[in-house]
Amino acid sequence: MNDLIMVVAFAPIAAFLLGVTDIGVPWQTLVLSTVLYVVLPLVAGMATRRLLQRRSPHAVADLVARLKPWSMVGLIGFQARTIVERPLVIAMIAVPLVLQSYGIFARAGSARAC
């Protein structure tokens, strides 16, 4: 559910927030960004999960456990300077992600209530 909402909602939310700040970004760029940073990783993740599940029922959990610490190391290692030097840019990225997360929880909650 999270990824499906992200595919549909990320570009419009980013366009809205960029419009509020008077930063012009063409829709083609927003759609391309959505494909590169949401759709392709989603498809790669689905393919990886399918291949690992064929190997073993625990293969996915094992891979996640091995990679999880390295994801934080990679984020901090490669983006630490940007995080410290450009907090406003980080906030502009975080706002659509937070809105998307709350939207998913709200949608999931209303789906369970039905």
Give a verbal description of the structure:
This protein has helices spanning 2-20, 27-55, 59-85, 87-113. The model has no long low-confidence stretch (mean pLDDT 83). It contains 4 helices and no strands. The two termini are 16 Å apart. The relative contact order is 0.12. α1 (2-20) packs across α4. By secondary structure, it is mostly helical. The protein has one domain. It is globular and about 50 Å long. It is 89% helix and 0% strand.
Features:
0% strand, mainly alpha, 89% helix, 114 residues, 4 helices, globular
Number of helices: 4
Q: Quick one: how many beta strands?
A: 0
> Which band does the percent of strand residues land in?
under 5%
Query: Span from first to last CA?
Result: 16 Å
Poorly predicted residue ranges = none
- Percent of residues in helical segments? over 70%
Q: Structural class from helices and strands?
A: mainly alpha
Report the radius of gyration as a whole number of Å.
17 Å
Instruction: Sketch the major β-sheet.
Output: none
Rough shape? globular
